[in-house]
């Protein structure tokens, strides 16, 4: 029976894409919907998102941000105001043309992102330097009509948060942009156990309408990179178009400096693909909806074991997110597989012999290590173990990334690595967008970021051989 | 200066609708947007919604519900499956017809409510009686293309939660429907200090597609009723159309019994119109974003007072949602008005004399009562005072409702009350929808609910004089 269960998930080595979908569908994280490209986030998947929201929202508020809500609809004329912006988003906009029986005079976009609608309000609200900074965040759904979709990674609709801030000076805006990038890095590394590289996007890869885009880039276990969060310094691009001016202390009317930044439900995809294995999902304790699953092993003493299991549940429930699987219709082995597939960090087994010995059996999802723990020490033991698991998962992911980060000194090396190994390729770059495009066309890899942490690998651009400006990361990506 | 400030809000007696809009705009709860009928919920208004969400979400989870997320889009064919449902919603649907450059093969509705898309998934997920009950809630935006709109009360887009559950038996579904109605009643009365009448909707007023709709009805301070929350027993209307069947313990395939229930951002409108006065908003402490505002009165001793004010802020901030208004550019009087307008339940003043006497001045927003409190007792005093304010606001609203609930024994009396007094009218009803429609046409009042708490006012229907079945409430409403 156990064997059969495990077989339901395609091994990663056989077909990574199918493994990914299997984990999502069979782990009940999400499901396909009758709407093209849209997914349903099921309760188990949504609980992960709720934990992400709770932890991130606290960080946003601790850095002075407040939440608000702007309309899901953006009139076409508004979306079109900033030229680069509309060019970037127009191809994937869903258009509302009718309200009830009536045809609308102007088409309305379902928001792909909210810069334009928010700027139109900031123009109204911001009058004086005293009104600055404006530090607003929004949790909402957005729509991008993508051709090909994949649950959590690329869907026609997804959930995200978008921060939108306005500042008095360029320096203030840049500081905010980097502050939020650091909030993302710390969150993703500390709470999701995913190591990331902080850096700047190239001109080709930056956000449509931004002055500069910063990113945190993660490496998935199939060797493809994933952009986990971005923070944009918008400069005065939008404030000039939307006429967001303030009277400064010196009596001059000035345009504000703006930022925007966001992460989305694709973080759940990143969790799956960073930590998962052939048994399924592996969740970092800090965002796991269930941190400890108690599986009673009844033997011949069902009442005794069930009562003890309930007692232990009561003992743990104020400290941890814990559940007791007391279902009759499944064997313990089946339950073990189910909860491993669902990525619960700790399994606690309790049977007649354990009760006799005043002990519980504790099994880690990350290493499958099994330990016998005195019942009286269970709370303390689990507390420490959850921290260990959180840390170990980060270290494992970091080790994988290091092993899959390679240096290329010339184009042939780069091409060879991408074709035969995937992973990150570190290479020197002259700063010319044509060299970047050449790599994309020839290998499918894109310039993921210009990392803050620079190394000098050589003097020459990996493509054109001209003088190199920066060390950059290339990779195939999601 | 103070006088000028107060004048910014239109008095309720002069123009209630304008007063309502003034409170919202000047209190910075919300703003008009460039999108027809859509509003922006500003940080101060959104913080009220976040408090509502937090408190309600806990109640939902305590009653066994889990959150999930379903697509914002619903294909036209799906929306049309349940006949009554589509008839009720089609006139106000926003239709997406284009994705990027492409015209869609089938029009897609922006969800006005999610029964149909959720049912299509439940049909996939529910197989056995062991899968029941399914208890799912969703927090999201919905769109109804209304002709005339009013912030929080009726907007093209609004935020809400919608619970959708599936059960094994009719009794289970009815129990759930009433359980969630009671959750709403208790929440609205305890946390929002708004008294409500629990009852059932008439056939004319029930939800499109429901078997039975239950409601909680509140009375606004202009004498109009407001439906604050509804809970629907959907029967098997949707399960038969969407083929949601389960294999019961007896080996028979059966259709599930369903419920749905929701409250929305219109609760914020209810708070404004139940409690507000000519100075502006009055917020119940439990959902006030700021419970205590500290206003330092510098006199000649700015540093001394500011330091003490900060000290008190530190003292209070772990117990309450507190802010310190240390702005230089406004006088204390201006600040008093501002925070009264924004409905902060308690104002704490501190000046040089207070510091000398080791005291603070505490002013209630609900009664304007002013008390001097020893600094060392401040935390305890405020804790009790917030409870008192919460309770007093409920009692005031209840008193108003009682004074504005009248009995009509015949149609002339009913018409006279609606025309000259508004408020609730209690009257006997034969149960015939024609009598209900007659009242609506002649007076503009609708049958708000058939209350659970019945009284026998007479034997005869207030319209036709035939045998009365039930005592019901009529009112003009939002
Ligand atoms: Zn080059
Ligand atoms: Zn009648």
From TrEMBL, chains A, B:
Chief subcellular location: cytoplasm
Location of this chain's protein in the cell: Cytoplasm
This protein's record includes keyword Nucleotide-binding: yes
GO cellular component, one term: cytoplasm
Keyword terms, alphabetized: Aminoacyl-tRNA synthetase, ATP-binding, Cytoplasm, Ligase, Nucleotide-binding, Protein biosynthesis
Function: Catalyzes the attachment of proline to tRNA(Pro) in a two-step reaction: proline is first activated by ATP to form Pro-AMP and then transferred to the acceptor end of tRNA(Pro).
Protein name per Swiss-Prot or TrEMBL: Proline--tRNA ligase
Taxonomic source organism: Thermovenabulum gondwanense
């Amino acid at each position: 029976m156990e064997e059969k269960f495990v077989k339901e998930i395609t091994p990663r080595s056989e077909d990574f894409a199918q493994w990914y979908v299997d984990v999502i569908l069979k782990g009940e994280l999400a499901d396909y919907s009758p709407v093209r490209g849209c997914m349903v986030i099921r309760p188990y998947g949504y609980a992960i998102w709720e934990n992400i929201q709770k932890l991130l929202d606290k960080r946003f508020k601790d850095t002075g941000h407040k939440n608000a809500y702007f309309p899901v609809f953006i009139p076409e004329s508004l979306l079109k105001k900033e030229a680069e912006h509309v060019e970037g988003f127009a191809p994937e906009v869903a258009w509302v043309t009718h309200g009830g029986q009536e045809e609308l005079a102007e088409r309305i976009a379902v928001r792909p992102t909210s810069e334009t609608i928010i700027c139109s309000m900031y123009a109204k609200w911001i009058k004086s330097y005293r009104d600055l900074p404006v530090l607003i965040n929004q949790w909402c759904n957005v729509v991008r009509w993508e051709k090909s979709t994949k649950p959590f990674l690329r869907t026609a609709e997804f959930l995200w948060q978008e921060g939108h801030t306005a500042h008095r000076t360029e320096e203030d805006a840049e500081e905010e942009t980097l502050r939020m990038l650091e909030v993302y890095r710390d969150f993703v590394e500390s709470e999701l156990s995913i190591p990331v590289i902080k850096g700047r996007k190239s001109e080709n890869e930056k956000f449509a309408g931004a002055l500069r885009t910063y990113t945190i880039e993660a490496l998935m276990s199939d060797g493809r990179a994933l952009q986990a969060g971005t923070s944009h310094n918008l400069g005065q691009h939008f404030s000039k178009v939307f006429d967001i001016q303030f009277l400064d202390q010196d009596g001059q009317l000035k345009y504000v400096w703006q930022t925007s930044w966001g992460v989305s439900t694709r973080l759940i995809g990143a969790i799956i693909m960073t930590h998962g294995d052939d048994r399924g999902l592996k969740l970092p304790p800090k965002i796991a909806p269930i941190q400890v699953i108690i599986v009673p092993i009844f033997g011949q003493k069902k009442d005794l074991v069930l009562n003890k299991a309930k007692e232990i549940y009561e003992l743990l429930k104020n400290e941890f997110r814990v559940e007791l699987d007391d279902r009759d219709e499944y064997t313990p082995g089946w339950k073990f597989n189910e909860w491993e597939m669902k990525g619960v960090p700790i399994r606690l087994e309790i049977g007649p012999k354990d009760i006799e010995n005043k002990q519980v059996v504790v099994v880690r999802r990350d290493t499958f290590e099994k330990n016998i723990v005195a019942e009286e020490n269970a709370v303390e033991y689990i507390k420490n173990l959850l921290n260990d698991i959180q840390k170990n998962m980060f270290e494992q992911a970091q080790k994988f990334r290091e092993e899959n980060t390679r240096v290329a000194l010339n184009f042939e090396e780069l091409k060879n690595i991408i074709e035969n190994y995937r992973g990150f390729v570190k290479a020197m770059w002259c700063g010319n967008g044509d060299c970047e495009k050449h790599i994309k066309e020839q290998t499918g890899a894109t310039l993921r970021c210009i990392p803050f942490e620079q190394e000098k690998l050589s003097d020459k651009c990996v493509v054109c051989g001209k003088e190199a400006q920066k060390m950059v990361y290339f990779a195939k990506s999601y």
